[in-house]
Amino acid sequence: MFGSHLSIAGGMYKAVLEAERLGFDTVQVFTKNQQQWRVPPLSEESRARWQNECRRLGFDQVVSHDSYLINLASPDPDLRKKSIELFTEELVRCHLLGIPYLVTHPGAHMGQRDDPACESEGCQRVAEALDLILGQYPDHRTIVCLEITAGQGSGLGYRLEHLSSIIKQNRHSDRLGVCLDTAHLFAAGYDFRGNIQYKHLLRQIDTTVGLERVRVWHLNDSQKPLGSRVDRHDHIGLGMIGEEGFKPMIRDKRWRDTPKILETPKLKHPDGRDWDSINLERLKSLIK
Q: Has this prediction a pTM greater than 0.90?
């Protein structure tokens, strides 16, 4: 199940139509302008049109990504309050739209980089914030997917253990999942190129967060080398992972029905084709 993060400009349903045009099976979207704290209400017309198009195409495993402004790990009271309020709105919008997965970065602890105490405190703040938010909506079924990160700055989530810690400290862990981004994994130091390395990664996932919690993949090549801790996405096969590096994961049947989302640059290829179409073609060619 392949998809891409697509624009909602002109209406959320436009992202679904674009996914159809490009040949995808699903889609990832922002449910609002991700660069603004302001949250305009969802109109009934917008909700209905989105749901109708998803229903028509059988898009029942769609994904939303929350705003990059949100930092649930922040020690700053004002930013934490604003982040909790905005994430709450993100969750409510997913519920209203029938979106089953909401992907979020754990956030930045804002302390000394790689300091175990700062990371532990940051993970605790994330767990407590999600407890508060999820506890307000016991009937909502959207799964919050904690995303692995590259580990830039004081960002949390570059170790699977960070995600595991947040989940274990949360009273609503049944509503938490994981999103694995290939570029982030690679930049964070997880090498999955080749069958042996891929099997080792699976063991690491299973002994930390659990394979059953992996609800979404982000498929991106990496411009930066293994362990660089720098987040720079590239087109499939053009980065340091390479097409061969994606093969074991793409051929693993356990992920057949898991949304696998491209977040690669949206520019046109020199030959005029959409890069999304080219990346999709390359991924499908690796299944054989």
A: yes
